[in-house]
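FAQ: What does the model actually see?

It sees only this:
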Amino acid sequence: MHAQTTPITTAAIAAALSTARAKVADNKRWMTALNKASLEIISTPWVWYGHTLKIKSRTASTTWYSVTATSCGCQAFAKGNACWHRAAFKLLSNAQNVTPATPATPATPATPAPVARDSQADVDFLFN
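And it is asked to produce this:
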């Protein structure tokens, strides 16, 4: 259940994760939240609405959290701690703004010029 209004690719999430990790490199709590979020986005049901993330609790099977840029209904957020739900929100928010890289156009292999000897052999075969 990963429905969202804007397609978000795993490559875009990976790019957002890389950028986010660089920004919070000195903050152990947010680094832990980001790492957990990157795993939970893959395994936990969620719905992305662009400005709100609905994500299922990992520990309470019937609980879904509504997460925004500034709030979350989980206990960690209520205690003022970094929560993986908000880290997931931030990853998805940033991932939806990642411009997909244009795939490189594969080089077309050069076609070797026919060798005169091969061409003459073909002519000889056809007409002899």
